[in-house]
Amino acid sequence: MIRVMIADDEEVIRRGLEKITSRMDLEVQVIGSYGNGLEAWNHLRELSQDDIDLLITDIKMPRMDGFKLIEEARGHLKQLPIAVLSGFSEFEYARRAMRHGVLDYLLKPIEKAQLYDLLKSVAENKKLRPAAAEPEEASHQAGEGGEHYVVEQTKSILEREYGQNFELERLAETVGMNASYISRLFKYKTGQTITDYLIGIRIAKAKELLIGQPDLKNYEIAERVGYSDPVYFNKLFKKMCGMTPKDYKSRCR
Questions:
Q1: Which stretches are transmembrane (predicted)?
Q2: Helix or strand or coil: residue 111?
């Protein structure tokens, strides 16, 4: 049984989490669901490590925010696994939370697969280590969560800004990490370079435009997906798809 406490000031998020966990093939018990950090802490302070397996908390909440709740929880139960709920717009908050040894980041809207992986990880660690986890392991898990968030944040930016001129330094600045570190991390986690991932997005968008807006000229499609040189775009499209944009449009009509 995985005992979970939830703290989030949005009732729809709390209810959603409870609903998703109840439908999983894991034994999950929500031992508390609170709309602010203070109510969550008032319950949590009474618990021992055997009473709770995971705290899921939002950052921005009334009465006591997530940072304070994490701080108090860490002081009371040093090895308690904690996951942060966060939107991409709150990435700066999530980066601060990394310093508190957070296990994972659940991005809003919540992905069932990510929540499942988190709960399964907590369940497996509980089986392996019924006693308190070693501090190094907790630190390693925190690093894993942070890395996941950085990669997801990078993907989100690329999917949103694929039509703009790509600059790694600007992307790194937005994410708040070193450019070479992000490049290595992204390749390690996804098996693709950032450039290859971006090309994949751009070609997919170009295909959508070729079919959805057939009146667009080739150079217009190239510009919309981030390529100022239509000749280069043509060559790249042919390399990736095995045919020119014109042939692709004809074939799909």
A1: none
A2: coil
Angle between helices 194-212 and 245-252 (to 10 degrees): 50
Q: What is the CATH number of the domain that holds 212?
A: 1.10.10.60
**In this predicted model, what pLDDT tens digit does every residue of 25-52 receive, in sequence order?**
899 999 999 999 999 999 999 999 889 9
Indicate the burial class of 39 (C-beta count within 10 angstroms; 0-12, 13-18, 19 or more).
Answer: middle
User: DSSP letter at 134?
Assistant: P
Strand order in the sheet with 82-86: 28-34, 2-7, 54-58, 82-86, 104-107
- Partners of 58 in the β-ladder: 85
Q: Same structural domain for residues 116 and 207?
A: no
pLDDT tens figures, 114-130: 888 889 888 887 776 54
What is the phi/psi pair of residue 54, to 5°?
Answer: -160, 135
